[in-house]
Structure formats: structure tokens, C-alpha cells
Amino acid sequence: MGMQMAQVKPEPPAPRSGAVVRVSGVSKSFGPVEALRGVDLEVVPGQVYGVLGPNGAGKSTLLRILLGLVRPDAGEVRVLDARPGSPEALRRTGALIETPAFVPHLSGRTNLEVLARAAGLPRAEVDRVLDVVGLRDRGGDRFAGYSLGMGQRLGVAAALLGSPPLLILDEPTNGLDPEGVAGMRTLIRDLGAAGSTVLLSSHLLGEVQQICDRVVVIDRGLVIADDTVTAIRNRPGGGALELWAAPSAQARSVLAQYAGTEPVEVGEPDERHWRVAPAPDDIPGLVRALVTAGVDIHELRREKQSLEGVFFALTEHDDTNDGTGGLGVTA
Ligand SMILES: Nc1ncnc2c1ncn2[C@@H]1O[C@H](COP(=O)(O)OP(=O)(O)OP(=O)(O)O)[C@@H](O)[C@H]1O
């Protein structure tokens, strides 16, 4: 009986039972443009990945390669232990790439039924995915009458047909209003919580911070960061310091000497509470100077950086990638 009870509530995704996607040494050029320059990536199951990067960094090219839509010039790619684009890989991958193409004069539901039939899936599966994306009530309307957000949700519904273990979503929030973005956030979070592996590209860094377990940052065709969101936000080099130090007169005079930052006395109730933003290289000297001045440090912590802050620090360089002016951050 205990066993049966255990089956009711799904277990959390098994850790690292083999990679869902393996990419090694992948390069791709379009004429003179080197879109990807030796990309390595391993996607572990049950995680939601955010693929980030400035305009023209190579995100879409990478996602297209995983779907077999673009063939790499060099390197190895395996998707669900199969060749990308092969029937075995595609059968188990749901994808939303750019604006989804549906037949305009058919209803959303009929569009999905056509896809479900082609994939040998029962009709009930269409109801299920319409429910998941919150389109059940509007499923009977002609696709031509759908708003952008509804069209996008229908695209996700199509990707969910057959519950594929891998979802690849290229800018799923593209063109959505804030309400649509919030809906998509909930949807993707739920998919992640249910154990799906999701790879999504996005320019909405605030969203990625909330939705994703891991991020892969691509810049000028190279993976420049691949880590958990938490680890990326905890990277050294950013984020202010918060400290509790006394006596406050001595603390003030030492803190005032550092990095031109005015120490902010945070604590009304606690005058030992300070917030400073020294250059990372100045931190050891600052701590030493406080101690030398007879200041007791009761607590010292670094504030977590926003994903957006780390992203800009990582991708900051003089040239823009393709003249489109970099990242249109709306988060
Ligand atoms: N089919 C193609 N033909 C020619 N050039 C291409 C093609 N696809 C992509 N590129 C170029 O390759 C580079 C990478 O493009 P890609 O679309 O992968 O970037 P991205 O990171 O998805 O950018 P964005 O954030 O703007 O969508 C760009 O310079 C782009 O112009």
C-alpha cells in the first residue's frame, strides 16, 4: 500500500540519469558570420534552462541545431540519445520556434487535433493541453481571431502534445503583454515542477531569474557561463556588502575611505548596520582597516546580484554583436 501511495505523488526528477542534450564542439557559420564557435553544453533532466545572450549571440542557431533545422559545420550533437531531427528525437521533443504556424481558418482545437492525429495521439490529449495553457474555453474559436498571446499559448499547447520529455521554447514570451508573460511564467514553472526538461531562450532576465534553474549565457557564438541561477547570482564581483560593525563612529570613518562610496547607515534601530559597495579588490583591505581601527564586525554579507546585473557584466564589450544595439531588456 505504501508503494501505491508513493505513486500518487510523483517523485522529484531523478538526478543526472544521463544528459538529455549533449553538445560538444559545435560550430556553425552563415557565410562570413560565425554564429557558433565551438559550443559545449550538457542538459541534465528535469531542469529548466534559460538560454541567454545579446542579439545575434547564437541562441536561436543553437536551438535550431537541437531540432535538426540547422546542420552544424562541426561538432557532435545528441538529443535524447538520438540524432537531432531524427524521428526518435522529434517524437520526444516539443518545440516552439518563432511565431507558431497554424491554419488561420481552423479553430485552435482543430489545429491541435490535426497535429495530434498525425502523431497518433488520442483526442483527449488535445483537451489536456488546451487545459494546461488555459485555452479550453477559446479552443473552438478560429485561430485567425486569436490574440498574439493566445497564439503563443496555442504554440506551447502544440509543443506539449504527447508530454514530450524535452521542450525547446525560443522566446516563448515574445510579444506577450505583462499578463501573458505572467501566465507563461506559471505555465513553464509548472512544467518544470512536473519534471519536464525545458530549454528556453529569452530576453526577459527578470523572468528567467524567476523561472529557470540554470542559465546558459551565449555571447558571440561561445558559451560564457553555464551554471545554476543561484550560483550565477552569487558570483563574486558584484552586489553590495551589508555589515554590522561597531563602534559606529570608527566604522563610519573607515568605511568613508573606501571606493568613494558613501556608507549608508541603514539601521535606524541598529546604528551598527551599514551598506557599502566597494570594488571587489578593496574588500580585504576594507575588512583589515576596520579591524585595525578597533571595529568589531558582527556580521558581513554580500547581497545577491540580480541576474540582469551579472548578465550585463558578463556580456559587456565595446562592439555590439550585429548592430541591433544589444539586448532589449524589458524585465
Ligand atoms: N539563416 C541564416 N542566414 C544568415 N545568417 C544567419 C542565419 N541565422 C542566423 N544568422 C546569423 O547568425 C548570428 C546568430 O544568430 P541567432 O539568430 O542564432 O542569434 P540569437 O542569439 O538568437 O539572436 P536574437 O536574440 O537577436 O534572436 C547572427 O549574426 C545572425 O544574423
UniProtKB/TrEMBL annotation:
One of its GO terms (molecular function) is ATP binding. Residues 21-245 form the ABC transporter domain. Gene3D superfamilies: P-loop containing nucleotide triphosphate hydrolases. SUPFAM superfamilies: P-loop containing nucleoside triphosphate hydrolases. It comes from the Bacteria. The keyword Repeat does not apply. Keywords: ATP-binding, Nucleotide-binding, Transport. Belongs to the ABC transporter superfamily. PANTHER family: ABC TRANSPORTER, ATP-BINDING PROTEIN (PTHR43335). This is ABC-2 type transport system ATP-binding protein.
